[in-house]
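Journal club prep — side note

Before the paper discussion, L.F. wants everyone to see what a predicted structure for a comparable chain looks like in token form. Sequence:
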Amino acid sequence: MSDTGSIQRHLSENGISRRAFLKLCTVMASALALSPEEVAGFAERLGQSRRPSVIWLSFQECTGCTESLTRSHAPRIEELIFDFISLDYHHTLQAASGIAAESAREEAIKLNYGNYLLVVDGSIPLAMDGACSTIAGRTNLDILQECAEGAAAIIAIGTCATFGGLPGANPNPTGAVGVDNLMQQDLIAKRKLVNISGCPPLPTAISSVLAHFLAFDRFPKLDALLRPIAFYGNTVHERCARYHFYQQEKFAESFDDEGARKGWCLYKLGCKGPTTHNACAIYKWNKGTSFPVEAGHGCIGCSEPGFWDNGSFYASLDSIVLAEVDGRQADARAGLSIEDGKQIYDSNCVYCHAADPTTLETAPDAVANVLRSGNIRAHRRLDFAENQIDALEKYLKSLK
């Protein structure tokens, strides 16, 4: 269980020097996009903070998120568990099982009520009264409701816990949803929430967000989908080492052609990098060794909502229509509302532009002409119907 000593004291007692601690803080502060002036304050706050109790719940998942955590290297997993947090419950990593395991969770809740961090990975099934996934005879929702009630904050890790993920793919037979969805339906207590999406998410994102919360008692700045902007503020595409080939319109046409061997852009082979927000190209996996695009496979967009249903992983974005209204293809003859225009912006435009449409450099009156011109490659994939363009224009004008 959590002790009362500060993290810095605990580190010193275990032979970890102040210099090593500051080096680690610098790495995490850089990942969180903190300014150089903030690094010292970050280190001081983190060093003086208390080791919190952490309860990790695994629901409809594949253990990939835990695998990602165990490959964290800034900080390393053993430092994270034994020096920065007290991991009091985790199906895969704990030694206890059965009654002993559930007793450990109940004791952690009792001793740390209102102060523990709750980590959730895996989606939560609602169909068939939650019978599709149970633990110790209790539904996932039942356990989550109990644990969320006494949590100081919740960290949803992985695309299953954030957006429903693969279990929530059509036709979603288990009624799988993410944590935020449950909060919006008032099915669990509303608590501070951060989404660290990805299948699996970056290990550096997991450990750095944990460290930020310990240091400042809050999560870093989040985007509209409650993801840390430091990691999800830009697309995989614009941070990709192959980006200059995209600009030069040099594309691999197949996975074994000359372009592929030369490392050309994988856009035509289905890479979803232009519509996917993540920092894979920067932090990568296995201590920064590589990530899928660098290894020769296009990004599948796994950190975005509904990625499994957003067209073939090997079909170019030019051939996939992402613009939908309420989950249906819009009738090109039907009149659409300002709210429809908002949904079109949120489902498409935010991938390359700011989440706040009032910051667009292009005037609302000019947006329709820009989209219809076809002069910008990134716009060609959208293939908006005329009424969708009109609805988007109406929405942008309404903001002025």
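L.F.'s comment for the group: The radius of gyration is 22 Å. Keep this in mind when we get to the figures.
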